[in-house]
Amino acid sequence: MDRPLISVIVPVYNGELYLSFAIRSILGQDYDPLEVIVVDDGSTDNSSNIARSFKEVRYVHQSNQGVAMARNIGIAAARGEFIAFLDADDLWASNKLTAQVEYLLKNPQLGYVLAKMHNFLEPGINWPSWQGEKFSEEDEYSYSVSALAARKSVFDEIGTFDPRFRIGSDTDWLIRAKEAGIRMAILPDVLVERRIHDSNLCYDYDKPGARLLMWRRLCRASINRKRNQKTKVNNKGNDDGE
To answer: At 207, is the pLDDT very low, low, confident or very high (cuts 50, 70, 90)?
Structure first.
């Protein structure tokens, strides 16, 4: 039986140290067919040449607009029935796509799946102070985009990533999916290796108020959506009653 095409989107900004490892972990998947789309978010290092050195990669360049916009550009270019994302510094287990796509095919009521993740520390780097060494003690169920595989139709239904969030656009998307009633599952397998280094967007969460500010913005956005939805429902009710 023919398998559906899955599009893998890799946003990168100055990721020359790790990008080739990420691409190889995609090309090493036991799933076929797949397409690899690397979206270069205005890198000034060698990321462009590294991406272009892989003949299997579709390379897309944009001016620096942030990771959310880079992912959205990838979604727009994707041809697959399913979409997955891999951050340029993360890695996948070789069966990641097979496990997730087969699960979605067997469970058509689900819109997307996640998986467990293992964190590993880049040599010479300390664990983030907001987590400490506990960060590495056990594998965790992941809500990271690198652990996500989704039907493309879900993005048509609830939209793409909100570029207003420099950090947290992935969490915002998951919140919106939940609000929309999109059903999901988290597989019990460790399918993602997340690299911890001092250039991670979330590495400096311990800066005064950084985490709190992000969650406040996410909560405010959710509240505003619910208010707007309630207003629309009330207005519709008033229109129907006239």
So the answer is: low
- Report the CATH superfamily, name and number, of domain 6-206: Spore Coat Polysaccharide Biosynthesis Protein SpsA; Chain A (3.90.550.10)
Residues 6+ apart with CB under 8 A from 78: 7, 9, 35, 37, 152
Instruction: Give me the count of residues in the chain.
Output: 242
Buried b / exposed e over 69-78, threshold 16 CB at 10 Å, is bbbbbbbeeb
Q: Where are the alpha helices (DSSP H) in the chain?
A: 19-27, 47-52, 67-77, 96-106, 152-158, 169-179, 210-241
Phi, psi of 82 (to 5 degrees): -120, 155
Q: Which of 6-10, 83-87, 134-138, 184-188 has the lowest mean pLDDT?
A: 134-138
Rounded-to-integer distance, Cα 185 and Cα 147, Å: 11
Annotated domain spans of the chain? 6-206, 208-242
What is the identity of the amino acid at 104? L
For residue 149, give the nearest of 201, 91, 81, 202 by alpha carbon. Answer: 81
pLDDT of residue 138: 59
Q: 169: which strand partners?
A: none
How do beta strands 149-151 and 82-85 pair?
Answer: antiparallel
